[in-house]
Amino acid sequence: MKRIFDIIVSVVIIILFLPIGFIVTLILLFSDEGEVFYQQPRIGLKGHTFGLIKFVTMVKNSPNLGAGDITLKDDPRVLPFGKILRKTKIN
Hints:
Largest sheet: 2 strands, antiparallel
Helix content: 25-40%
Strand order of the largest sheet: 1-2
Strand content: 15-25%
Structural class: alpha+beta
């Protein structure tokens, strides 16, 4: 029963998020970078790695610029629309 509930809630949330995701995708597609998604490696259960797909919020090649992997307050590598995505936790 819990599995069915989880699937139904997930489908409803995905359907509700689609319009927002579509708008964000269009804005990022026509932004300076022209990319929409960023794949970040994460470590999951039992040490298995998987790729987490996120919206792009920083300029390309940002780890090789400025502070490296650490994001600072008012980091110049963060795109203007990326600041909005980060503040609203949509990224």
